[in-house]
């Protein structure tokens, strides 16, 4: 049985010698089954594989990504090919391999995603002779490990995590994040608030999905109460989405209007009492002096 799966059955007789030496147990691929792709943006399809040739340099490997079960045109079904002249016209300059084939990495990038780029797409690899670049009998299409793209015409909205209430004069932290599938051209997260205290994190959440986080920290004032804070995500290709929340600031009570007049009143009273005491002592001493003089005169 021919398990090569590269050619229609009517080619099997002429290629029986090629097919007979290849076993599917020796050729394996790990490709995500489906992945979101934002139209006008880009998508990266993670892929790894193993083959019968052991560790080989890139010059000995020829890579292709092709449509599955689609009638080929003059360029075949290749959305990517190591020979750029064999790529379908509507995929020219839009696909490339990101991984090193010599390290069994078949990761594919598609840019300027179109709404008809849904696939399914399968990876194919051939081992070639270095002297003339002709294929050998070692070749395989991984038609049981293909990827389908879930076409998104609208960008995903950011998710915002924030404490319900901020306190006036105290640091306040809010996190904005968005999921994407193009780590080569990550979305840009921005705020409608001027702050230099912003930290950006990138996270791989598996199966081709990535997350970017923007962590904003600022100190709200009384004037920021009921202010709308917006996080905007701009994706490769220009599409944008945003999420807004209303900031509620808990005011810190200000008792200065009570404390200051009270302090002034107390200070004035103390000063008045001190003056009175001073004056009383002064007049008492004066009276005593006058009485003393009057006693001397009577004698």
UniProtKB/TrEMBL annotation:
For the keyword Hydrolase, the answer is no
List, alphabetically, the Gene3D superfamilies matched: Immunoglobulins
Would I find Hydrolase among this entry's keywords?
no
TM segments? 258-279
Q: Which InterPro entries match?
A: Ig-like_dom, Ig-like_dom_sf, Ig-like_fold, Ig_sub
Q: Which SMART domains match?
A: IG
Species this protein is from: Oreochromis niloticus (Nile tilapia)
**Coiled-coil regions listed in the entry:** none
The major lineage groups are: Eukaryota, Metazoa, Chordata, Craniata, Vertebrata
Q: Which PROSITE patterns match?
A: IG_LIKE (PS50835)
**Per UniProt, which keywords does this protein have?**
Membrane, Transmembrane, Transmembrane helix
> The Ig-like domain covers which part of the protein?
158-246
Q: What is this protein called?
A: Ig-like domain-containing protein
């Amino acid at each position: 049985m021919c398990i090569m799966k590269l050619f229609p059955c009517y080619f099997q007789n002429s290629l029986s010698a090629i097919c007979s030496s290849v076993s599917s147990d020796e050729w394996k691929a790990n490709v995500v089954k489906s992945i979101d792709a934002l139209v006008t943006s880009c998508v990266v399809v993670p892929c790894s594989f193993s083959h019968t040739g052991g560790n080989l340099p890139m010059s000995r490997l020829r890579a292709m990504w092709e449509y599955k079960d689609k009638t080929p045109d003059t360029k075949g079904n290749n959305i990517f090919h190591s020979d750029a002249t064999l790529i379908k016209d509507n995929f020219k300059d839009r696909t490339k391999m990101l991984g090193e084939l010599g390290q069994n990495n078949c990761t594919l990038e598609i840019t300027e995603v179109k709404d008809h780029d849904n696939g399914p797409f399968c990876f194919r690899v051939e081992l070639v002779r270095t002297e003339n670049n002709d294929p050998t009998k070692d070749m395989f299409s991984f038609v049981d490990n293909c990827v389908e793209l879930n076409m998104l015409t609208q960008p995903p909205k950011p998710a915002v995590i924030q404490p319900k209430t901020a306190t006036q004069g105290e640091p306040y932290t809010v996190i904005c994040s968005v999921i994407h599938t193009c780590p080569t051209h990550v979305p840009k997260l921005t705020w409608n608030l001027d702050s230099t205290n912003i930290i950006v994190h990138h996270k791989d959440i598996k199966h081709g999905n990535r997350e970017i986080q923007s962590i904003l920290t600022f100190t709200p004032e009384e004037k920021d109460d009921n202010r709308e804070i917006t996080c905007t995500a701009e994706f490769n290709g220009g599409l944008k989405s945003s999420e807004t929340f209303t900031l509620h600031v808990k005011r810190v009570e200000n008792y200065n209007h009570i404390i200051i007049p009270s302090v002034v009143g107390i200070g004035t009273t103390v000063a008045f009492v001190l003056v009175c005491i001073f004056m009383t002592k002064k007049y008492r001493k004066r009276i005593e002096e006058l009485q003393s003089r009057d006693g001397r005169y009577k004698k």
